[in-house]
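Kindly go through the following sequence and its C-alpha cells. Advise at your convenience whether the C-alpha cells fit the sequence:

___
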Amino acid sequence: MTQTKATAKTKATAKTKATADAKAADDPQRNVSVTFYIPAVLRNRTRAAYRATADVERDTSWSDLVRKALVAEIERRERVHNGCIAYDGDDSPLPAGRPQR
C-alpha cells in the first residue's frame, strides 16, 4: 500500500472511530467495541466456560459474559477502593503502553 493510501485509510479509520465515540457519548447505554489483549490460554478457557455454561448462566452472547466479568471486577474495585461509590466514566484516552512499575 502506498503511503498516500495508508494515510487516507488511517484518517478514515480515525474519522469512523470519532463518529462512533460521539454517538456513544450521546447514548451512554449504546454498545461500543473494545479491543484488548489477553493470553490465548485465558481466552480459550473463557470460551470453554462460556460454551459449557451460557444457558444456565443466561448469557445472551459472548459479549454478555465479558460484560458481566468486567462489571464484577469494577464493582469489586469500587467497593474496595472507592467506598462503594461508582467511578465516573468518560471517553478520555487511557495512557498508551504498559504502566510503569
